[in-house]
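Researcher: Here's a chain I'd like modeled. Treat it as a single chain, no partners, no ligands.
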Amino acid sequence: MMILPLLAILGPIERPLRWLLEHLHSNVGLTWAWSIVVLTIIVRLALVPLTVRQIHSMQRMQAFLPEMKEIQKKYKGDRQKQNEELMKFYREHNINPAASCLPMLVQIPIFFALYFVLKDFEKTVLVNYPNSDLGWLHLVPNITANITSHWSGYLLVVIYAGSQVASTYFMSATMDRTQRILFMILPLGFVFFIISGSVVFPAGLLLYWVTTNLWTVGQGLVTRRLVPKNVAATEKRSSRTAPGTRQGQPPPATAQASSPAPAAPPRRVKRKKRARR
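Model: Modeled as a single isolated chain. Structure tokens:
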């Protein structure tokens, strides 16, 4: 019952995905597996504007991370007050914590739409392309088959798990330690869900997921170069700065008063003229 409304929602997404796969296969000349890889790259390129917003949000959150931790520490015993103060802090500094999740939220319906495309691939697409190559790198024999139908599927699951952990590590610069560990453990639970075989999981769908994870790893490497260092670190005293003085500010008045005054010019003494006899 619940599948029918889901199909109605994902239908407008399925049709463009199916058309793009057929275009990449028939006009560009790619195999179906590489068509999925290129489709993934096209999807991530379309999400670049959201990704830029995500990076900017991470930059701002990284810059204000010490202040946010101080608020969490101050209201540690009152979670409601802590959330209120954090939301107030976000508004004052124009921070949108949800911006870092936008690319992932957009990819979720695309992921499910591709699942239904591959699920009915033989009925809707392959009837027009008989004897098509459904393999990938001579490892995956059929991208529409269940991931557990061949030993190479388990290899792809291992690659997925590694890429998922790596992508979470590089994109979790603003997460605390508990959240980072949680996001790294969740993929392992999903691996057991795939291997259990309770749901037919096409190998091509996992290929899509591995490709987007590798893209996220590269994006994370770029983000780490773009995220500035902690703002508080720029306010540290240098070894040449006087105590109690910040860089770029004049020394305090007490330090200026303690410096010796310049020596006064020598006083000229006039001699009296002698009276003539």
